[in-house]
Amino acid sequence: MPKTRRRRTTKKKTAAQAGGAALTRAQLLDLYYYLRLNRLVEERLSALYRQGKVQGGLYSSRGQEAISVGSAYALAPQDVLAPMIRNLGSMLVRGVKPVEFFLQYMQQEGSPCKGRDTSLHFGGIERGLVPPISHLGTLVPVMAGVALAGRMQAKNLVALTYLGDGATSTGDFHEGLGIASVMRLPLVVLIENNRWAYSTSVAAQSLLTDLADKARAYGIPQGVVDGNGVLAVYEATARAVELARRGQGPVLLECKTMRMRGHSEHDDAWYVPEEEKHFWEKRDPIRLYEKHLLRSAVAQEADLKEIDARCLSEIEKDLAVAEAAPFPRPESCVEDVYASSRSEQEDEPVPAPRAARRR
Ligand SMILES: Cc1ncc(C[n+]2csc(CCOP(=O)(O)OP(=O)(O)O)c2C)c(N)n1
Ligand SMILES: [Mg+2]
Asked: 0.85 exceeded by the pTM?
């Protein structure tokens, strides 16, 4: 479970609390730290990709960082989160360190998946992170199962996962919400409506104005949130988590945002109209939050610069470690195929056959 939950900072409240979200000044700055870290790690990964050092695809969350950070920050330590490919920020909030991303994406020795995988299948249940298994809604039924298991084990946990606008057209999404609703499972599903599913616009696949309206088919609560406002996302998620924890069943939230890069690094998003890009550039979630912190006197320019510098030095240090790491030993690819190695199995006492024991 995450060790880096930042709820335990000073109890002193500030005038800059957004709505009902009782966040302290330290927590408000903490959100800024994670937003900046999210963006900087992804910028470094993008540079590494261009140098040919990242293996496989790379999917940026630029423009969507407020969704990952705000939602993950609203969880309690016992809650379980299943990130999607654009939720690196959620993983940072849950305690994954930048060095782990660099090692993982470069497939170096010492990476969380031991050099055998990149952005997909990276998680860790011990930290309350269920790894992604596919891009398109498959985590909704999986997380319904996690919510059910949590209830059966009386863990008082809420399960949270994400999916894209495009993924709300898949069967897995509907099947998952269907079972979660009738069983009133503590599940929060966040739609990241970033207006595009690869090169398919939302309008090309749904007549709805709000994808959150899909919740009506299941009789569950829904909400539409400004996905570029980290405090709006935090508050909406905190409310949804509370409802789910109280046994009201699943909640569907739609966070409206924009994918500010291509589907993945190799895609230049030529199909996105220029005016749409310009419209959203002015709504950059980090710039918006920066302005909020300064205007509400939660922070001075110098405070934010100090956090930026801290993020940069953390990343430089972690990147140096990852770059210096070797590739995995070739023979390590056959390890972990079985639950335990041959020598360990030989050490284990072999249980006597039943008949022999009876004698
Ligand atoms: C069955 C299937 N079809 C197509 C793909 C390729 N693919 C992966 S993600 C994606 C688009 C997803 O769009 P959306 O759900 O809006 O999420 P976003 O990428 O915008 O975050 C596509 C077409 C796939 N992985 N699986
Ligand atoms: Mg999308």
From this structure: yes
Tell me which residue has its CA closest to atom 19 in ligand 1: 197
Q: Which residue has the tokens 């269920």?
A: 130
Does ligand 1 lie within 6 Å of residue 136's CB atom? Answer: yes
Distance, CA of 142 to CA of 156 (rounded, Å): 18
User: Per residue in 5-29, pLDDT tens?
Assistant: 333 333 333 333 344 458 999 999 9
Interatomic CA distance for residues 359 and 42, integer angstroms: 66
Atom 8 (ligand 1) nearest CA: 135
Which one-letter DSSP state was computed for residue 15?
T
Quote the pLDDT of residue 19: 43
C-alpha 101/C-alpha 234 separation (Å) is 24
Site to probe by mutation for ligand 1, drawn from 61, 86, 170, 198 as the one with most ligand atoms within 8 Å of Cβ, is 198
Q: DSSP letter string over 256-280?
A: E----S-SSTT---TTS-HHHHHHH
pLDDT tens digit string along 60-84?
999 999 999 999 999 999 999 999 9
Report which protein residue has its CA nearest ligand 1's atom 21.
164
The set of residues, in sequence order, having a beta carbon less than 8 Å from that of 164 and lying 6+ positions away, is 84, 86, 135, 136, 191, 192, 193, 194, 197
The torsion angles phi and psi of 61, rounded to 5 degrees, stand at -105, 20
Q: What is the topology classification, in CATH, of domain 6-358?
A: Rossmann fold (3.40.50)
Of 5, 29, 10, 24, the C-alpha closest to 292 is 29
3-class secondary-structure state, position 208: coil
